[in-house]
Amino acid sequence: MANKLYVVGIGPGDQAYLTARARRALEDAQVLVGYTVYVGLVSGMFPEKETYTTPMRREIDRCRWALEAAAGGKTVALVCSGDAGVYGMAGPVLQLAPEWPEVEIEVVPGVTAALSGAAVLGAPIGHDFCVISLSDLLTPWEVIENRLRCAAQGDFSICLYNPASHKRSDYLQKACDILLAAGADPETVCGYVRSIGREGEEAAILPLKELRDAKLDMFTTVFVGSSTTLAEHGRMITPRGYERKRDLCGS
Ligand code: SAH
After folding, report:
1. At 22, which helix (H) or strand (E)?
2. Is the Cα dihedral 186, 151, 217, 9 positive or negative?
3. Is the CB of 135 inside a 6 Å radius of any atom of ligand 1?
């Protein structure tokens, strides 16, 4: 009996972003489990494999189903977009795992949207940065507001996940207003990337005062620069500080 569950981050979409280790885990699995869209991104590579898909917001059902299938003797891959542990299924699976002690769990990392999106824009997170999700489905909004304020006060570059949805169309605007009130310059260089690594990928660089009014959706990752972030030749760059050391050749 295999009793094996891989929790696999598949990257932002295109197979080119799938790591060799993630591919091996998917190859090894008999069943691919996950949100319909993510399983759809990889099932084409393995048309012979059994799949079990659930709609969005059924995360815990999905984890339980995957653990149950692995406990039944199958090798299962629970597929997550980006990285499995960044707003992904690795945490919930490991929290539920004690109920299925016979299942061996392996977390396989993937390229999270902060990294794949940053590469599209240039180097926006080249220095200290933080990642904040604007989704208040599982986190009280006051906690999110406080983290935004602290990030602005700490002058971090910030990656915003879940910047909006149908029900939360003004959250990005609220977030920008909090950053501005906490002292961020309205000219702070910002950017966003929609559908990273997928068909129709699009990106833009714009100042914070304009990001505030951008109409973005949940398939977008937003980057707010720090006070040192630059827009140069169409790229967003947060310098590492070599200029100050007069040594631009370091790595
Ligand atoms: N585990 C995922 C994050 C899931 S939260 C990861 O590590 O990337 C969902 C949010 O991630 C989205 O609202 C969006 O902000 C971001 N995201 C995930 N994939 C994306 C993609 N292909 N393009 C743009 N943003 C993406």
Report:
1. helix 20-28
2. positive
3. no
Provide DSSP, 128-173. SEEEEE---SSS-HHHHHHHHHHHHHTT-EEEEES---STTTTHHH
- pLDDT digit string, tens, across residues 45-66: 998 999 998 877 788 889 999 9
The pLDDT value given to residue 242: 77
CA of 214 to the centre of ligand 1 (A): 18
**Best of 57, 87, 201 for a ligand 1 pocket test (most atoms within 8 Å of beta carbon):** 87
For the segment 146-190, what is each residue's pLDDT rounded down to a tens digit? Answer: 999 999 999 999 999 999 988 888 999 999 999 999 999 999 999
**Cα(112) to centroid(ligand 1), Å:** 7
Number of helical (H) and strand (E) elements in the chain, helices listed first: 9, 13
Residues paired with residue 221 on neighbouring β-strands, in sequence order: 193
